Amino acid sequence: MIDQTVAPDARPATVSGVEQRRALVTELPGPRSRALMERKSAAVAAGVGTTMPVFAAQAGGGVVVDVDGNHLIDLGSGIAVTTVGNSAPRVVQAVQDQVAAFTHTCFMVTPYEGYVAVAEALNRLTPGDHAKRTALFNSGAEAVENAVKVARVATGKDAVVVFDHAYHGRTNLTMAMTAKNMPYKHGFGPFASEVYRAPLSYPFRDGTLDGPAAAARAIEHVESQVGATNLAAVVIEPIQGEGGFITPAPGFLPALAAWCRDNDVVFVADEVQTGFARTGDMFACDHEGVVPDLVVTAKGIGGGLPLSAVTGRAELMDTVHAGGLGGTYGGNPLACAAALAAIETIEADGLVERAREVERLMKDRLHRLAADDARIGEVRGRGAMIAVELVLPGTTTPDAALTKEVAAAAHRAGVIVLTCGTHGNVLRFLPPLAIPDELLHEGLDILADVLASTR
Ligand code: PLZ
Fold it and tell me: Which strand (E) or helix (H) includes residue 418?
């Protein structure tokens, strides 16, 4: 039985106006959420799902407050977006100032400084000290598409290589690039052509930590089935997100990047989920000193406002003709103001180091849980991007049913957790970096209770 009371003497800290405590004042979902869920079913397309049947009213730090007044522990950050916290103070101030000044002019009509400042910040922060250029968009998928456009113009080639378990988005080209059929692709074809899939390094399932050997296998696959002379770009998430928080073996990414360099192939890192301090470095590529030709970012860049970017080598980015890249809203002034404030927060508040602390705390607890629970096949990830892969004890057979059951029980206890993985058997944790340690511990206590109760 999970204790749902709070110690009466300890008044929790408040972040962004939200008390940093878990508290359930109704069952979940409560009556207001249930009523809203009915309206949702009647008004919103059935294809738009929700992880929890709970409607948000307010959020800050490590807590989401629902419309019934329940305080939930946030271990999801709205899928790795609110890295600096929800309604983070600098972001709120910057957006309020900007919304009062002007909301939109379209950068392609009358430009504004915020867009240029975000481009400068990205050129400074992304891996490598070569000359760079940036273009801004609205969503991760849109930025991935534009990275492919740049790579095709720059190389004069067509083909794109992606990997097993990859996730790159839901638009037509990015659906082709995404691996998993259900729910992302099923029934939505035909898909864009000239997209080829190569084998990933997945140590838990490959049984090898030999990254260069895994890269050689992928390269052999690409050379024999695509051909470097046809290949514009290799696009890879340095740590896969939706595919299961898969960290390739050391040496895999550097070997791929080196092969791309030698073969006039653009190496594109999709850092949409891993970027902006999430993994305990500003970008996940930094862990191994990998310098991509193009870096795609979104999510954590905007503190919750929709913004994405392609940043890359000036000589590649500048091959595209004027007017070839853009969009009505790309680099919207509010999103740019939010991004500058989010980046300032990451740097001023030492959030890269904070992500490493979160990793130590979470991995320590999860490794101890795994030590006497054979259903936990692996604990993995970096920074505040940590996962456990659940399997049938003593095997690597995915246990999606258990994963679903554990997530649902955590939800009922007031903890927002997400699942992922091609086989749906990975529980993932993406807490905002503004979360207090006590809430991380409490979230993991609940996870431990839930795992024990499902034995
Ligand atoms: N690349 C690596 O993680 C988005 C999608 C969830 P958009 N991941 C969450 C869902 O069910 O839609 C993502 C990502 C990586 C690209 C994207 C796409 O980013 O902003 O959702 O388009």
Answer: strand 418-420
